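Risk mitigation, structural track. In case the binding assays with uridine-diphosphate-N-acetylglucosamine fail to produce interpretable data, a predicted complex structure has been prepared as a fallback.
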Amino acid sequence: MKILVTGGTGYIGSHTVVELQESGFEVVIIDNLSNSNAEIVNSIEAITATKPQLEIFDLVDREKTLNFFKRHNDIAGVIHFAALKAVGESVEKPLEYYRNNIESLINVLDGMRANGLENFVFSSSCTVYGQPDVLPVSESAPLKKAESPYGNTKQISEDVICDATNATGLRSIALRYFNPIGAHESALIGELPLGVPNNLVPFITQTAIGIREQLSVYGDNYNTPDGTAIRDYIHVIDLAKAHVVAVERMIKGKMKKEFEIFNLGTGKGYSVLEVIKSFEKVSGEKLNYIITGRREGDIEQVWADPSYSNAELGWKAVKGLDEMMQSAWKWEQAYREKDKDKR
Ligand code: UD1
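Fallback model:
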């Protein structure tokens, strides 16, 4: 069975393509390579012995998108990752974010409708909860006003999908990710941020390898045990596997309603200092960091209640923090080694 993975050369997308292929699915990727590299399909082939098909174009291009669906009307499911995702950049360029993230979604849904395709999985985020009133946060928690245009595109996208699902023959699952980190154990694929990383773990590994001078820990006066902010970090492989489960659930007709929402987290929160300690333990490196002021827009603490996902999907995140940090470090080292060879 053929699955379309938009954004399939990106960080979460590429790991999901590997898991899909290893579960026997055929994969076709659409990506505009705005934040990734076409060579990723070779790395995926090195892991799975199968090279996924890659079509390079922008899903904001309506004609190209509709034309793609006309040529591929045998797709069993669509997993839609393709989107811009930098919070800070979205504040500076809101129109780009709304245009890119919302128009591409509408074009994909339109292409599916035109060809009678039914199964749609969407890449959402725990950012839709803001700072929840109750922890752990479950899928029924009220959504707070988005802190950024990026976060707002996730909320709007969920609304668009919900309305489209009600009005057409579509079946949809939105997966709300907590904080994905780590890399494939082969160290052939992993997170590859363009420029200076915004996210914690790539910043840690780039500092340890000497590309960044020092990590800033954003605030140690939060109302948490060690004063630093708490997140639910989840191994990208655990996250990728949940997408395979979601697609199979749709194909096998196991959904309880036409639009379902699931949290993808471990249920356990770690502070920034705990993440650093885990990194230092598994790498044997001493990390150069200082405590600085809080980052604007950051929330204090959030972690998932994954019990509904665990029960309904029969899926559970199994990899612990040390394993996540170990794999992120292995990937960073392998990537820089390869990069050196190229120069
Ligand atoms: C961020 C986004 C979130 C998005 C997710 C995608 C914000 C406010 N939120 O989540 O909407 O879905 O990325 O990956 O940007 N930290 C440091 N120093 C650093 C970097 C981070 O101390 O150099 C801290 C942060 O303050 C936070 C934790 O590390 O407490 C995790 O940060 P990050 O990896 O950026 O993820 P989020 O902010 O949770």
